[in-house]
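Weekly structure sync, notes
Attendees: PL, DS, HV (note-taker this week)

Item 1: Receptor-like protein kinase At4g00960
DS walked through the input record. Source organism listed as Gossypium hirsutum. Sequence as pasted into the shared doc:
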Amino acid sequence: MWIKLKALSSILSHLLLGIALVDANLRCYDTEETTPNGCYTCLNASIQDLIASCPNRKEALSWGGDPPCLARYANRPFFGILELQPTDSGYNTADITSNLTQFDTIWESLMDRVVSKASSGSSTKYATGEADFTAFQTIHALMQCTPDLSHKDCDSCLRQSVSYYESCCRGKQGGYVQKPNCWFRWDLCPFYTRNASTAASLSPPPSPASPPPLSVNSTRKKGDGGSHSSHTIAIIIVPIVILVAVLIILAVAVLLKRIKKTKRDDQNNKTHGEALQFDFNAVRVATDNFSDANLLGRGGFGSVYKGQLEDGRKVAVKRLSESSGQGEQEFKNEVMLLAKLQHRNLVRLLGLSFEQKERILIYEFLPNSSLDNFIFDPVKCLILNWEKRYKIIEGIAKGLLYLHEDSQYRIIHRDLKPANILLDEEMNPKISDFGMAKLFTVDQTRADTSKVVGTYGYMAPEYAWHGQYSVKSDVYSFGVLVLEIISGKKISSFSNQEVGDSLLTHAWRNWREGTPLEVVDPILRDGSRSEIMRCIHLGLLCVQDNIDSRPTMASVVLMLSSYSISLPVPSRPAFSMHSTMETETKSQSSSLSNQSKRENIQVSVNEASISELDPR
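Item 1 (cont.): predicted structure, written out as tokens:
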């Protein structure tokens, strides 16, 4: 049940002083606990939270708690526009303890059914559904979109919410995901009213009925009229004065709170920056004065060393080249932004250190080296069976999705390749070398650049030839990665064959001729054939020559997690740079991993990673 409160919307407009309010939306979700009074209370609390927590913001939103509700305003119109960020989620801490595979099958089928029902149903975009898991357990699901969304946008919003939940909370006994335009929740216990109306309108509670007028003598004295007029004026003026006084007090309170919050934020940022900063002498000791014995690799942005801190922690230390061109405070601010990027499929940046012209980055240390040392090694490749490779593909996709859409900044990696995918103890993938361009004086204000930095073969053609890059450039690189992981062959392994042939065209030709398994690494033949075929299909979709035909990473994650989505037929891939020109140097990556078993590591300065960061 969506409930729109026009009165509270009006209150919100008056209280947001100094904001040119264009659109405001106040809505409640339908659950078993949703009542008009409860909704009114939730939204009123959310409005107060917006005023207190987001002073002087041009747009903001606040999700209420119980019953769930949403208060949102902006100085721009957003009616009928699909917006997927920000995202809020939560889950039941209890786990599904048995028959998880069977549960996943039933759960995914139910979610798919409820998504279709909600998006294609009535104008309220609301649907519920149930499915029996066991004789005593039933899965309950509820999904809602804002009624102004189109059928297609509602379907997309809900499916991405389901995919988001699967990536963060799979195996739990309940949870929710909410976005600005849709809300999704499921549980093993009923939490909604089965027969509730899908839409309702609510106004503030009506005033009590006026008592019947008293019987009085109709004859009045002549002077009574003036007394009556004065009384009426007083009744009108007093509430206005009180209202103005309340608004003034509220404005002063908001202003004082804003000043206090600004001071607190400045103090927190200062404390956070101090926590990230490592003593340069301690870093020097940890790496044995940047000894060659601890050198892990060299790249365009500097050298990487293995180190051990005083507390025993092993770290990877990246000593940046002197071409950074940034002052201490600017460098510190940029690193603080990068350190806020936290995802299980990203290499974690622990901190920084600097002294005069020295600029140091400290990362978590990953002992299993990089992906290229496994899939292209005739012995180590045996460690990665199909289940592990599929998990690696999924992890890379989720990490890229975070960089593109879910992080505070939109980051385009521009040098995604196996050497920049590091593996932890359990062979989980972590993307490295993201965001490096912000630490150097590289023009990041345009989507066109005359300085192309990356690795031939993994670069999208529009970037390699014209310097044009976008999130679809990373999608292309991801497609190359997927085909390399499946085939066990490097993109460059076809460079000496006939002109125009490459791993991409080889895979596409076999796909078109009905022999896609010819592309697969022989050691993977015992893996799930349907998963392998789907990943080849997905890889070919990512490397299509037409930029618009390539899927987004959100679509890729959804395609990997839901087999109910049919994939379009891929068109011919773009020419691989390895099949159309010769490179002067072989591209390898400066790795943050332990490669101590290799005595000499040669890394070309041509393979440095560059990433783009745009504030959202």
